[in-house]
Amino acid sequence: MTSYGRRERPEPPEPLGAPTVDAHTHLDACGCETAEDVAAALDRAAAVGVTRAVTVADDLAAARWAVQAAYWDERVVAAVALHPTRTAAVTDEEFAEIERLAADPRVVAVGETGLDYYWDYSPPEAQQASFRWHIDLAKRLGKPLMIHDREAHADVLRILREEGAPGTVVFHCFSGDAAMAHECAEAGYVLSFAGPVTFRNAAALREAAAIPDDDHLLVETDAPFLTPHPHRGRANEPYCLPWTVRGLAEVRGMQADELAATTDRNAERIFGLADLPPVATVTSPDGRAPRSA
């Protein structure tokens, strides 16, 4: 049983007592290729209480795949954008295709976009220009903006102020400190927490995780990356989310099932999940009949 290269998947966690949503995952990078792969991954997740997932693109090929996957299974929706590390040389045609894909009714967010100063794949100027373009796209489409922010906190917040943030901003895999969490809370941004909130060396992140109010909180895997404790270093998948739910609930002084239900309601509201047309009533991007789970 392997996924994400040669890494082995951990055995499933104890199921949650209330359903919740994986607000950010990469099903393609988890090894999913076909509709059957997607259904199997969501079946594994559903068995532990993770009933829906947002699969997120980081380049154009992944964006095409994510939109298709959202038509393969009712439990899957998509977010599309160009990851900041993919922005060194982007053509007008590529931006135009991202815009077309982002307008699809089963795409619930523009993301992940933002800034990444950890990797040296794209110069800051190119990243910032792309980030500004994606902010504008989210506003024009009326969809949430899903932000990737790695070692770029000040510039991400500055550009959001300069451009004027969309109505909904989600900081995926929030990695800031308590001061940044307070600033985000004051701005009304949504903070989504992943496996690192369970890591033993993440005291500052846990302090930040206690700050947002319940209505501005999401939980995610960012699978296949960032597998939560106690399985750090092994392959991650949406079914691993309960470990993060339990770790985050402990930080916030909540019962795990209460946090699961809260983040489920939030994901439904933030991403408009209740308003999506059933896949059986819409045409998939390649014109083929959609496959529903």
From TrEMBL:
It holds the Pfam family TatD_DNase. It comes from the Bacteria. InterPro entries: Metal_Hydrolase, TatD-like, TatD/YcfH-like. GO terms for molecular function: hydrolase activity. Residues 1-12 have a biased composition (Basic and acidic residues). Keywords: Hydrolase, Metal-binding. Transmembrane segments: none annotated. SUPFAM superfamilies: Metallo-dependent hydrolases. Residues 1-22 are annotated as: Disordered. NCBIfam families: YchF/TatD family DNA exonuclease. This is TatD family hydrolase.
